[in-house]
Amino acid sequence: MEQEEIWSADVARRYDTPGTGMFAPEVLGPAVDRLARLAGEGAALEFAIGTGRVAVPLAGRSVPVTGIELSPPMVEQLRTKADESTIPVVIGDMATAVAPGEYSLVYLVYNTISNLLTQARQVECFRNAARHLVPGGRFVVELWVPELRRLPPGQKAMVWECAPGYIGLDTYDVLRQHVVSHHFRFDDGERAQLFRSPHRYIWPAELDLMAQLGGFQLESRHEDWNGAPFTEDSRSHVSVYRLPPAP
């Protein structure tokens, strides 16, 4: 599955869920608050801006926001909320595409760095973030912690969520650090709707080494956008990396 095929026009039309899921105020609000503080008086660049879930409210906080996005259909949905002059977007790969300007903040949220399916491309993503940042600038990555402790020996699949009308199932290839997420949505009928996406999972320590290869140092790591402590039982993290300041 190529990423361009996954993030199709049909997926883009169904992506937004206003007020619920990742669009819920208690999920989105703390993320926008934290990113606005980290951007300070500078501009922000979002890798994989998508339909503007974070970028639109962040721009509403008077933070200049630019995006890089691989999927034109996702950008078409963004354009129903903000025009090109408000949130410029470069169509391209977040590991290599270049946006004009300089930024105090680059951010990559909701596990999206794992959409890059090799370690080399994930490292290149860090280098691309560094390429866009001013000295002392920050790169923020929101990412889940691989849940291999929950995967029984000899099994390759794990149900990670089961709710009315929804089942989330992951299948693992631990040799390549690959996982395919399967999202089943259904009603009382016999048919279900399936969305699948491939990922390369990254351990926090591996992510820190990628950051070092890109010239960053870890500044902070928390369990969530509210700043909860990151522990051995945390299922996700928000990691802030920073470039050295100017001499």
TrEMBL record:
Keyword tags: Methyltransferase, Transferase
Domain Methyltransferase: 45-137
Pfam families: Methyltransf_25
GO biological process, one term: methylation
InterPro entries: Methyltransf_25 (IPR041698), SAM-dependent_MTases_sf (IPR029063)
GO function term, MF aspect, one: methyltransferase activity
Highest taxon in the source lineage: Bacteria
Protein name: Methyltransferase
